[in-house]
Amino acid sequence: MPDMLSIIIPLYNEQDNVEPLYAKLDAVLRDMGHVYEIICINDGSSDDTRERIDALAERDKRLRVVHLRRNFGQTPAMMAGIDLARGDILIPMDGDLQNDPADIPKLLAKLDEGFDVVSGWRKDRKDNPIKRNLPSRMANRLISFISGVHLHDYGCSLKAYRRDIIKGVKLYGEMHRFIPIHAAWQGARVTEVGVTHHPRIHGESKYGMERTIKVILDLMTVKFLDKYASKPMYLFGGFGLASLAVSGFFFLFMLYCKFFLDKSFIATPLPLGVVMFMLIGIMAIFMGLIAEILMRTYHESQDKPTYIVDCTRNCKEEDRSCAE
Ligand code: UDP
Ligand code: MG
């Protein structure tokens, strides 16, 4: 029995993309000989996306639809799809036709080689070069360096996961791009494969340069949590001790100068000021990280969903169905 596929597509104001995307997907998937489902998550669209996917779902029961209560963002929308997916292989992709369904067989071929995660690599990315491609290239380098999991394009939504790698993960912020990293850290075999990228024809991109900044801040959290989540004291305590040692050293140095060389630094607060400001800066960064841990704990302990479902179509019976 070939593996069942779940294609997962977050949609936010993609009314003109829904039908052509469905047609392309249908053409590719029909030829592949896999059982499949397409899960469309309407992330609180304010255009006609809702009506259009509902109409498609009416005709095709393999198209499962989740309408979220409001706009939660691409990552929570993707989560909603992952939570619902029944496939052995989960394949998230964008709903704006920038990813090409024709690449799906390529991803699956890599999984067949024995990989658990295959990440798309937009070798020739068709987005704004200054606002998106350049910052994202820099972010990718940084992520690769910090995480030690070397991919070229973490941000490409088109990926393929074996089910057990991704089921049960909790995603928030821009975290969807870090799933392969988490997976690799857990021992999963991760690889990438070149995919086609098309310019966006209908609708608008929901992101600008600020996204890269968010990604980098998320990266710091991910790395930090990986290393110190269970023992933050090793880091904070180490820092505190080092800082005490530095201040002790300067105190002794001043005492020595005063009593043996008769030279006083008391009248020059400037060097101390510089040191103080540096320490305050570093402290501020660590405080930010503590706040991130608290946030993560908050997310995980409350078991609070990162999205809220309004209604669904073609989903499990116990799911709430859309009013006719
Ligand atoms: N998206 C979403 N919720 C949002 C923003 C985006 O579901 O709040 C979806 C969007 O409809 C698209 C995918 O996420 O299918 C990628 O978004 P976009 O094309 O705007 O990102 P870009 O390609 O510019 O990185
Ligand atoms: Mg796009």
Automatic annotation (TrEMBL):
<dbReference type="InterPro" id="IPR029044">
    <property type="entry name" value="Nucleotide-diphossugar_trans"/>
</dbReference>
<dbReference type="GO" id="GO:0005886">
    <property type="term" value="C:plasma membrane"/>
</dbReference>
<keyword id="KW-0808">Transferase</keyword>
<feature type="domain" description="Glycosyltransferase 2-like">
    <location>
        <begin position="6"/>
        <end position="167"/>
    </location>
</feature>
<dbReference type="InterPro" id="IPR001173">
    <property type="entry name" value="Glyco_trans_2-like"/>
</dbReference>
<keyword id="KW-0328">Glycosyltransferase</keyword>
<keyword id="KW-0448">Lipopolysaccharide biosynthesis</keyword>
<feature type="transmembrane region" description="Helical">
    <location>
        <begin position="233"/>
        <end position="254"/>
    </location>
</feature>
<dbReference type="GO" id="GO:0009103">
    <property type="term" value="P:lipopolysaccharide biosynthetic process"/>
</dbReference>
<dbReference type="GO" id="GO:0099621">
    <property type="term" value="F:undecaprenyl-phosphate 4-deoxy-4-formamido-L-arabinose transferase activity"/>
</dbReference>
<keyword id="KW-0472">Membrane</keyword>
<keyword id="KW-0812">Transmembrane</keyword>
<keyword id="KW-1133">Transmembrane helix</keyword>
<dbReference type="InterPro" id="IPR050256">
    <property type="entry name" value="Glycosyltransferase_2"/>
</dbReference>
<dbReference type="Pfam" id="PF00535">
    <property type="entry name" value="Glycos_transf_2"/>
</dbReference>
<feature type="transmembrane region" description="Helical">
    <location>
        <begin position="274"/>
        <end position="295"/>
    </location>
</feature>
<protein>
    <submittedName>
        <fullName>Glycosyltransferase</fullName>
    </submittedName>
</protein>
<keyword id="KW-1003">Cell membrane</keyword>
